[in-house]
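Retro notes
What went well: the complex prediction finally ran end to end.
Inputs used:
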Amino acid sequence: MTTQAAMSNTLSKSYIEVRKQSEELCKPLITEDYVVQTMPDVSPPKWHLAHTSWFFETFILAPYLENYRRFNEPFNDLFNSYYNGVGNPYPRPKRGFLTRPSVDEVFHYRSHVDQYMGELSQKLDRHPKSRLIQKLTQLGINHEQQHQELLLTDIKHIFAQNPLFPVYSQHAAESPPFGHVPLFWTRFPGGEAEIGHVGDGFSFDNELPRHRVILNDYSLTNRLVTNREYKQFIDDGGYSNPLLWLSDGWATVQNQSWAAPLYWLKQDDHWQVVTLGGLKPLNPNEPVCHISYYEADAFATWCGKRLPSETEWEHAAGHSKTVSGNFVESGFFHPKPAESGNSLQQLFGDVWEWTRSAYTPYPEYRPAEGAIGEYNGKFMCNQMVLRGGSCATPKNHIRKTYRNFFYPHNRWQFMGFRLASDQ
Amino acid sequence: MTTQAAMSNTLSKSYIEVRKQSEELCKPLITEDYVVQTMPDVSPPKWHLAHTSWFFETFILAPYLENYRRFNEPFNDLFNSYYNGVGNPYPRPKRGFLTRPSVDEVFHYRSHVDQYMGELSQKLDRHPKSRLIQKLTQLGINHEQQHQELLLTDIKHIFAQNPLFPVYSQHAAESPPFGHVPLFWTRFPGGEAEIGHVGDGFSFDNELPRHRVILNDYSLTNRLVTNREYKQFIDDGGYSNPLLWLSDGWATVQNQSWAAPLYWLKQDDHWQVVTLGGLKPLNPNEPVCHISYYEADAFATWCGKRLPSETEWEHAAGHSKTVSGNFVESGFFHPKPAESGNSLQQLFGDVWEWTRSAYTPYPEYRPAEGAIGEYNGKFMCNQMVLRGGSCATPKNHIRKTYRNFFYPHNRWQFMGFRLASDQ
Amino acid sequence: MTTQAAMSNTLSKSYIEVRKQSEELCKPLITEDYVVQTMPDVSPPKWHLAHTSWFFETFILAPYLENYRRFNEPFNDLFNSYYNGVGNPYPRPKRGFLTRPSVDEVFHYRSHVDQYMGELSQKLDRHPKSRLIQKLTQLGINHEQQHQELLLTDIKHIFAQNPLFPVYSQHAAESPPFGHVPLFWTRFPGGEAEIGHVGDGFSFDNELPRHRVILNDYSLTNRLVTNREYKQFIDDGGYSNPLLWLSDGWATVQNQSWAAPLYWLKQDDHWQVVTLGGLKPLNPNEPVCHISYYEADAFATWCGKRLPSETEWEHAAGHSKTVSGNFVESGFFHPKPAESGNSLQQLFGDVWEWTRSAYTPYPEYRPAEGAIGEYNGKFMCNQMVLRGGSCATPKNHIRKTYRNFFYPHNRWQFMGFRLASDQ
Amino acid sequence: MTTQAAMSNTLSKSYIEVRKQSEELCKPLITEDYVVQTMPDVSPPKWHLAHTSWFFETFILAPYLENYRRFNEPFNDLFNSYYNGVGNPYPRPKRGFLTRPSVDEVFHYRSHVDQYMGELSQKLDRHPKSRLIQKLTQLGINHEQQHQELLLTDIKHIFAQNPLFPVYSQHAAESPPFGHVPLFWTRFPGGEAEIGHVGDGFSFDNELPRHRVILNDYSLTNRLVTNREYKQFIDDGGYSNPLLWLSDGWATVQNQSWAAPLYWLKQDDHWQVVTLGGLKPLNPNEPVCHISYYEADAFATWCGKRLPSETEWEHAAGHSKTVSGNFVESGFFHPKPAESGNSLQQLFGDVWEWTRSAYTPYPEYRPAEGAIGEYNGKFMCNQMVLRGGSCATPKNHIRKTYRNFFYPHNRWQFMGFRLASDQ
C-alpha cells in the first residue's frame, strides 16, 4: 500500500465516521424536530444533514466524478448556504418553510452521496486530481463537524422556545461533582511569538499564514468565569449601568431587554437554565454560557479586567501539550465546572472563549480560488474571534490555532469567557 | 325519543362527521407538513387540529363534564388562539416553533376530546346545562369547519413557498371544460329590506340581529371577475397607476412590490399559478383568486364600477333559493369557471367575494358573555366583509347571511370579487 | 352688482380672511419652529403655509389664469401632498428635511399666489369657467382651514417632544371656572331619517349624497367623557386588561406601551398635560383628549356602553339649531369643561368625537373628476369617522354633516368622545 | 512670563481661534439650516454649536470654576451626546425635533461659555488643577475641531436631500486644473516598527500607547482611487456581483439598493455629484468619495488588491516629513485630483482613507478616568479605522498617528481609499 493510498484510506475512514456521527446526533429527534427554524441564525436539523451532503456533491462529486448525476436538481439551490459562486442560495430565513424534501428523502440523499463518495474513493489512486479531491474531502469532513456543533446549538434553541422544554438527552447536564474553584492568575512573559497553523495537518485557510507577532506581558485566569461570578455582576446592576458597556452593547441590551444570559429563566425568584437535558436549576460552579461578546466585555470592565486577545490565548495554549477537555464525545452537552487547582484549565471544550480580537485576515492571507474561497474570507468583518471549542465540538476537530467567529451580539452558541490582565 | 334527544342525536352525528373531516383533509400530508408556519397569519396544520380540540375541551368539557381532566395542562395556553379570558395564548407568530407535541400526540389529544365529548353527549339529557352545551357544541362544530378552510389555505401557503411545489391532491384544479362566459348585468330595485340571520338554524353572533336597511337600485354581474379580465388590468398598467388605488392600497403595492395576484408566477413570459394540484398554467376563464381588497377595488375603479356592499350582496342572494356551488366537497380545491348563461351564479363557493363594507357590528349587536364573546366582536375594526364561501368551505357551513372578514391587504384565502354598479 | 358678482365678492373676502388667518396662527412661531417634522403624520408649519398656496396655484391659477407662471417649478412636487394626478409628491416622511425654501420665501410664495388670485378674481365675471373657479376657490378655502387645524396640532406635537415645553400662547388652556357636571342621558327615538349635506352651502364630496337611513332608538350623554372619568379607567387597570380592547387596539397598546392618553405625563405621581400653553396640571373636568379610537372604544366597553354611530350623532345634532362651541376663535386652544345642565352640549368644538362608524362612501357617492377626486375618496378604507370639530377648528368651517376621518390609532388631533347606548 | 503661562497663553489663543472658526463655518447658513436632522447619524448644526460648548461647560467650568452657574439647566441633557456618566443624553435620533433653544440663544450660550472660559484662563496660574484644566481644554479644542468636520458633512447631507440642491459655498468643488495621473506603486520593506503617538503634543487616548509591531513587505499606490476607476468598477457590474463583496457588504448593497457612491446621481445618462458647491458633473480625476468600507473592499477585490492596514498606512506616512494637503482651510470643501508624479501623495486631506484594520484598543490601552473615559474606548467594536483627514479637517488637527473610526456601512463622511498589495 502506498503512502498516498494509506492516507486516502484514513480519509475514507474518517469520512465514514463523521458522516455517521451526524446521523448519530439526530437519533434523539422525532420527525417534527427536523423541520423548524426559530430564528434566521438557526437552521432546521434536516437542512444541516442535507447541506453537508450538498457540500460533497457540489464541490467534489459534480466536478470530479465522471458521469455523476445530482440526486435532485433543485437541491442545488435549496441546500446551498451562501456560495453565490455556484448558484442562487434559497433565502436563509426561509429554511424553516421547507417541509419537503421529507426527512426520509434527506437520509436517502445522504446515502446517495456516500455511495458515490465511496465510488470516487475507489478510483482516487488513478484520478488526475487526487490531491485536490483529498484536500476537498478533508475540508468537507471538517465542514460537517462544524455543522454537528450547529446541529446541537440549533436543536437547543428550538427546544428552548417550547414551554414543554423537550429533553434531548437524559444525561445532558447531569449535575457533576465539582465544587467551587478559586480564581488564580498565571503570568505570561511577552516578547516575540508566532501564531497560526503550522505543519501538515488540516487547518482552515483563516489560520494561515503562520506569522510573527509581538506580545506584552499578560496574565490569564486558571479557569472560565462561572455562573456564580456572573450572577454577582447581575445582582450588582450590571445590566443597568451603561458605563460598563461598549456603546453598541448598551444599545443591544436596551433593544433586546437583556437582563441575564440567554436560556436563564427566573421562576419564583430562582434561576433556572435551559439545557439539552431540559430545564435545570442554575449550577453556580459551571462556566457562564450563552452570553454575547458585549456581556463578556461588560463583565470584564465591571471587575477591572479585560478579555484576552486571540494572540495571547494561542500563545498561552501553546504551553499546554494536548487538546483535552469536555467535548461532544462526553455526551454531557453542557459546560462542566472546573477541577480544583491553579493550573490553566478549560482552554479546550466547555465553552468557546470570546477574545477581544476582531476577526480579520492574517497578514498575506489569501482565500482559496473559486467558490470554496467564500468559506471564510467574506466573513472577515464585524465579527469577533472565539477560541478553544466547546462541549458541542468534536474533539478531533479543534486545535489551538482554530479561529471561530461570531457577531458580538450572538449568544446561541456555547459561548463564555476567561479574564485577562495587563498586570 | 324526545325532540331534544333527536336534536342532540343529530348534533352528535354532526360532531363526529366534522371531526372526522378535519382528519380526512390531512390525509395527503406527511409529518413534516404539519409543523411549519410560513407567515404569522398561517398556522401549522398540527396546530389547527389541536386548537379545534382545545375549543371543545376549554369551553365544554372543562366547565361542564364532571371530573374531566385536561389531556395536558400546558396545552391550555399552547393551543389557545386569542382568548385572553381563559389564559395566556402562546404567541401567534411562534406557532411554527413547536415541534412538540408530536403529530401523533395531537391525534391522541383529538381522540381524548372526542371520547369525553361522547361521554358528555350520553349524559346530556339529564344535564342541567344541556341547552347551553348544545349551543356551544354547535359553535364548536362551526368553529372547526372554519379551521378546515384555514387548513387548506395554510397548506397552500406552505407549499407555495417551496420551489418543489408539492401537490396536495392530483385532482385539484384539473382543467374543467367550461369556456368564456360573457359578462351580464342584473338590475335589482332598491327600497327597504331586511338583512341578518333569521330562524332557528345556527348562525354566528355577528349575523345578528336581523334589521331593516334601505337600498338604492343597484346592479350586479352574473359571474365573478376572471383571470382574463384581471390580466387586462395588469397589462394596462394597473399596478403602476396610483390613480386607481385607495391610498393605503397604493402604499401596500409599493411596499410589497405587488405586480400580480398572490400565487401567480411568470415563467418564460407565461403566467403560471400555484394550486393545490401543483404549479399549472393560468386558466383565463377561472375566477381571479388570491387578491386583496385593494386589488379588487382598484380593478373596479379601473373599469368604472365598484364592489357591492354586503347589504346588496345579501339582498341579491335572497333571490336564489338554494346554496349551491363549488365547495370543498367537490375535491377541486380551486375556483371553477362560470357556466354559460346570464343568470346570477357563483354567489356561493369558488371564492369569497370582497364587499365594500367594513366589518362593523349590526345595530344592537351584543357579543356573547364570557370568553366566547371574544369570538367575533373584537375584530370589528379595520377589516372588510366577504360573502359566499369558497371552494375550501364546507357546503353545510355557509349561508347567505354569513359574514366572513379579513384585512384589506390579505390575499392568502380563496378571495375574489364580482362587480356592482349604481346604474 | 349681479348676484354672481356679489357671491364672487363674498368669496374674495373669505379668501383674504382665511389666508390671513393662517399667517396669524403662525405669529407665535420663531423661524426654527417652521421647519421640523416630529413624525410622518406631522408636517412642518412652513410646509402647511406653502402647500395651501400650492393648492390654489395648481388647481386654479395654473389651469385657469392665462399666462400665469408658477412661482418656482420645483415647488410643484415639493408642496404636493398626495395628488399623484398632478406630479410626483415629495416623500411625506421627508418634509422635515427641507430647510429651503426659507420661511421668508414661503411667505413670498403666499403673496405671489394671493396677488394672482386677486387678479383672477377681477376677471372672474367674464371668465368662461367662472363657476368652476368659484367652486374650486371655495374648496381651496376650506382646504386651508383644514390645514389651520393641522398647523396647531402639528405645532403641539413638535413642542411636546421638547423637554423645554415651549408655550404657543399664554392664554391657551388657562384654567376655566367650570366644575364637575354630572352625566345625563338623552333618549332619541329611532325611525327613518336622512343624513348628508343638503342645500346650497359648501360641503365636501364625502358628505354627499344625502340619503335615507334607519335608526333604532338610542341615547347619548349630555357631555363628553372627562379626564376624571378616564383616570378611573386607568386606575382600574384599563390599559392592562385585554378583554376591554379590540384585537388591533390591544396589539397597539402593547407595541406602543400606551398607558395614558398622548401628552399625559406623570411627574412625582401627579398627572401633567402638555397644552399649547405649556405643561399644566391635569384638569379633571376637562374632556379627555388626544386618545385613539381604540382607547375610546375600550373605555366604552369598560363601562358597558358604546360609541355613537355617525348616523346617530348627526341625527342628534339635527336637534340643535346652531353650531356653537369652543372653536379656534376662542384662543383657548384646548377643550373646555362642560357647562352645568342636562342638555346635550359640546357637540361642536372642544374635541372631535370618535364614532363607531368606519369611513366609507355614502350610497352613490362619486369622487370629483380629475386630481381633485383624490381629495377624499381614496382614504375611504381603514379609517373611522369623527364629528363636530374641535378647539382648533375654525367656527365657520364646521357643519353637522361634516365627516372628519383618522386611523383608529391616531391620537395627535384634538380627539375625544361621548358615550352612546341602545337603552 | 513663565513657560506655564506661555503655554496657557497659546492655549487661550487656540481656544479663541477654534471657537471662532466653528461660527465662521456657519456663516453661509440661514436659520432654517441649523435645525434639521436627516438621519440619526446627522446632527443639526445648531446642536453641534451647543454641544461643543456643553463640553467645556460640563467638563471644565462646572467642576473647576468656582461659583460657575450653568447657562440653562436642561441643556445639561439636551446637548449631552453620549456621556452616560454625567446625565441622561436626549435621544440622538430626536435632535432634529428641538426647535428651541433658538439659534440666537445657542450663540448666547457660546458667548456665555467663552466668557467664563476666559475668566478661568485668567485664574489658571493659581488654580490647583491648572494642568488638568489645560489638558481638558486641549481636549475640548480638539473635540470642537472634530465637530467642525461633522458640521460640514452634516450640512452636506441635509442639502443633498433637497431637490433644490442649496449651495454652501460658490467656491466649493470648483473644477481644478489637474488631469489624469497614472497609478504607481511604492514598495515598503517590512520588519519591526513602532506605531502610536509619541512626544509632548496632543493626541487622543486611542493613539496610545506607542508600541512595536511587525510588518511584512507591502506596497501602496501613489494616489487615491479616482472616480474614473470607480466608474469602471460600476460599469463592470461591481454592484451586482456577490463574489466581490464581504458577506455583510453584499447584504447592505441589497437592502439599501446601492448602485453607486452616496451623492452620485444619474441624470440623462450622465453622472452628477452633490457637492457643497451644488450639483456638478462628475470629475473623473477626483478621488472617489462618500463610499463605505464595503465598497472600498469590493473594489480592491475586483482588481486583485487589498486595502492597507492602519499599521502600514502609519508606517508609510512616517516617511513623509510634513502634514500637508487639501484641508478645510483651502475652502474647496471637496477632494482634489492628484498632482502628477509618482511619489506618495494625498496621504493627508482630500478624503479619509479606509484601512482594513478594525478599530480595537492598542496593547495596554486604558481609557481616561471618569466620564471623559467614554470619549473613545466604548466605540472599540464593529468599526473600522480611517486615516489621514479630509478636505473638511482642520490642518492643525491631524497627525499621522490619528485614528478616525466609522462603521463599515457609513458613507456620509468624506471617505475614500488607496490600494495596497502584498507584492
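What we learned: Chain C touches chain B at residues 82, 84-85, 192, 211-214, 216, 242-243, 245-250, 293-294, 297, 356-358, 360-361, 363-364, 374, 378-382, 408, 422 (CB under 8 Å).
What to try next: split runs per interface for comparison.
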